[in-house]
Amino acid sequence: MLSLTTGLAPLVLAGLLGWTGAVKAFSKGTARTAPKTALARLLRSSDRATTVLRATGGVELALAGGLLAVPATPAPGAATALLGAGFLGYLGYGRLKAPESSCGCSADENVPVTWRSFARAGLVLAGGVAAALADASWWSVLGDRPAAGPVFLAVSALVLFALSADLDRWWLLPLRRTRLRVFGHPLLGGASGEQVPVAATVELLENSLAWQAAAPVVRSALLDHWEEEGWRILLYSGVYGSGGDARPVQVVFALDATAGRDTPGDPMVRVSYVDADSGQALAAEELQTVPRRSALPMAG
Hints:
The protein has 300 residues and is α+β, with helices and mostly antiparallel strands. It has helices spanning 2-26, 29-33, 38-43, 46-69, 74-97, 115-132, 138-144, 148-162, 168-183, 198-206, 209-214; strands at residues 224-228, 231-240, 247-256, 268-275, 281-288. The two termini are 38 Å apart. 32% of the residues are buried.
């Protein structure tokens, strides 16, 4: 297993560094991402950060070439290990001084530095050490281990794939969407008829025609809510009428307590205006909503 790891580490690292190096060196996104990185704060210049990112990409491409061409010599592996150590130091600075910034590790991600960034840099360091200890080329190892070699490469690729935040859109987000389709979203109504959270009902209301019609009257955020005979009642304060006829009112909405964004059809919303002093209903109407103004995106 040790010979397999040391022998194929140059090939794995060459794939990783070739990809991240090419993105840093040639992608138009490098200049766009650089100002959001911890490197820009360290260098106090977005332009300098862009230059350093592109130069780092060039170094990574050179190392990838060395790992592929002369894998059985220690120099490319040792240089890669030093690069990994440098990445870890930079990530530590970024996490400490600019936790909200991205690392710019592939110049194509906008997420803050997380444990995945440290884990990937740690693998670069460990892989560089392994590559420096290799005593056989990666092509000879693949030739000698035709079954184990491809399996090792596939597992390594999956690990690096999982540790790359900028690749989440290719696997993690689809996985989350599938989970939501199968198990349901916590803010959506379910087929079992269970009540959804109040926040989901408010979101549904605020995207309805009934809310648009009543919005000129409403003057507050949600004041109170309760359930009654399958309806969820939402209470707001407002002002009904204008000029000398204006009077304070309570605006009462009623929606199905189990309705959510995935509930088939358009929800029924009942609206009532109740005089705040006398408690007498001033107007009431039942509105069938039309397609909502804009569908809010589901969390990934």
